[in-house]
Amino acid sequence: MDVPLTAPPGGDLYWPWPHKDKVGHFLAYALMTLLGAWAWSGRRALTRRGLYTGLLIAAVFGGLMEILQGTLTTHRHAEFADFLANLGGALTAFAGGWWWVRRRNGVAS
Q1: What's this model's pTM, rounded to 2 decimal places?
Q2: Which one of 10, 21, 42, 98 is at 20 to 30 Å from 80 when CA atoms are compared?
């Protein structure tokens, strides 16, 4: 099955559910946050510092991309809902990573 990660404006992503672009934003920014957190942790295991850095980078990048789409392009437009989906994915990944770090360190939930 071929599922593209991006689509042209007005294009379709071949996914059979409503708000598929928001799901794509959510998943992409969750992955970006986890990969950034892992990279910034500087070790094999996630760290709190890495999680905070990954979240910050994903949130700022998501906000800037929406602003720049609305100001620098003529064929794309900014959507606050896209930004919320970006932020939701980043925050969900951060929360999952935070849980994982606490569990790994033996801190009870």
Answers
A1: 0.79
A2: 98
